[in-house]
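To whoever is on call:

I kicked off a structure prediction for a single chain this morning and the downstream step that reads the tokens threw a length-mismatch warning. I double-checked the sequence; it's 465 residues and nothing unusual in it as far as I can see. Pasting both halves so you can look.
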Amino acid sequence: MDLFITKKKTKGGKLRQTSINDACDNELRNRTVQKIARFMYQAAISFNATHLDSFKEMIETIGQYGPNLKPPSYHELRVPLLQKEIVYTNELLKENRDECEKYGCSIMFDGWTDRKQRALINFLVNSPKGTMFLKSVDASTHVKTGTLLYELLDRFVERAGEKNVVQVISDNGSNYVLAGKLLQTKRPNLFWTPCAAHCIDLMLEDIGKIEVVRKIISRAIALVGFIYNHGSVLHMMRECTENKELARHGVTRFATAFLTLQSLHKRQKALKRMLLSISTVESKWANDAKGKRANDIVFMPSFWNNVTYTLKVMCPLVMVLCIANNETRPVMGYIYEAMDRAKETILKPFDNNREKCKNVLDIIDSRWDHQLHHPLHAAGYYLNPYFYYHNPKVETDTEVTNGLFACIQRLIPSPELRDKIIIEELPVYKNSELLFGNEFAIRAMNNKDQPMTPSIYFVSKKLNS
């Protein structure tokens, strides 16, 4: 009877007695959601599935149908319903294909090795509409040879349509570099570009090989490993740091090392208090070899000095890595400026004296000059209104303008169309005329997070139409 006499708050904040209907609705809902939960537990469905719009739509549709809904059979799920979903998915993908034809696209491929040691490559197409999965290929017989990789890439460019492809993106392995060069030779109106995130991660990896940085990372791993491998020490650490963790995971192995060093640096005092308390009480860890090493590391002044040095040289690159891995906006218009700013940020703590961090800057310049730097990055920087309209020097920067014209030269086959872009379209952008001068465009060019970034291919397609 308690179900029917308890009081419930109304929207106005007043209390009213719970009706029999309210109680029955609650009881019915509790029973229903319990059945849904039981199904998810038995089928081992991830709880994240409840965040999907399709899950919410399914529940809503079942509710609209009402009682006596006959569930789909095994055969229905396996054949007719699956075929209908394929048709529906293809209709969704048609919008992406239309965007590719209108504005151009990037073909991306990502290689990985499965548990059977097969070399698989996922092929994806990215356009302003988003990213579309094309196919996964077992490339075990291709990946070790650049010429075979080139043939594989060429087939997918043909499938997407060469006139629609602006760039083909891969990682930086020597076989992919060769495949990219062969592809550019055959297809003179597209670019091969290395993955920016992979190149930046290689910079971090090279910096990690510097003797000082290598020792710091090794000692940090030993310290964190000692703490996390002993339950009582871990519990004590969490008490001293107010439940803050030391081990933090990033998008790559070296980003993880940086985040862990950053966490250690923030909790330096707490770690010293913890190890002091271990050494002053009768504890088996105080006399343990690994415990003694952890204690020596924490109370070693040079360790913390070198942690600070490592954070100073790695932090700007990790920030660029975060930009490159951003999935909420196109990053081509940001990489060029981000790399310049990263080098300036590294220099600043060293009083802009390049000699004090020459080894780090040489690593960055080497990777940037020979791998990552690309005409598309320069053109993206030039055509990003936030940077162009806030930096008067862009127009006189030879490297940037050369990159822009190199892109126009390669991406636009027609000389007449190239002339039109340079003579008619670029002045409109430079002088902030027509649509570039309206209120929305002005707001966008003052907002770094959401700039209006036109692409060269959009300009060319618009002129064609």
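Update from on-call: the warning came from a stale cache, not from the record. Cleared it. Sanity check on the structure: The two ends are 74 Å apart (CA to CA).
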